[in-house]
Amino acid sequence: MRTNIVIDDALVQEALAVSGARTKKDLIHEALREYIRLKKRKDLTELAGRISFYPGYDHKALRKMGS
């Protein structure tokens, strides 16, 4: 889709510098993918009260196993 918009040049230059994108088009695509990824991420506070752990669950023991 072709769209014409006015974007702050300084903002674009800073984003290009930190993103590693080679073109403005690549930058916009990367920004849109990141925006979508962040919006789809579940807010952990939304899960409060919805997760039940089985009796005897020991999170500290599991941490020791991972070390």
Biggest β-sheet strands, sense, barrel? none
Cα end-to-end separation:
49 Å
Global mean pLDDT? 88
Helix percent reads 40-55%
Low-confidence spans: pLDDT under 50, at least 5 residues? none
SS elements, strand count: 0
Beta fraction: under 5%
Alpha-carbon Rg, integer: 21 Å
Question: What best-fitting shape do the alpha-carbon axes yield?
Answer: elongated
Number of helices: 3
Helix/strand-derived category reads mainly alpha
- What letter string, H or E per element, gives the SSE order? HHH
What topology emerges from the helices and strands here?
Elements: H1 9-19, H2 24-40, H3 59-66
Explain what the structure shows:
By secondary structure, the protein is an all-alpha fold. It has a domain at 1-40. The chain has helices at 9-19, 24-40, 59-66. The longest helix is centred in the middle third of the chain and has 17 residues, at 24-40. The chain is elongated, with a radius of gyration of 21 Å. The N and C termini lie far apart (49 Å).
List keywords for this structure.
67 residues, mainly alpha, 3 helices
Task: Give a quick precis of the structure.
This protein is 54% helix and 0% strand. The chain has a domain at 1-40. With 67 residues, the chain is mainly alpha-helical.
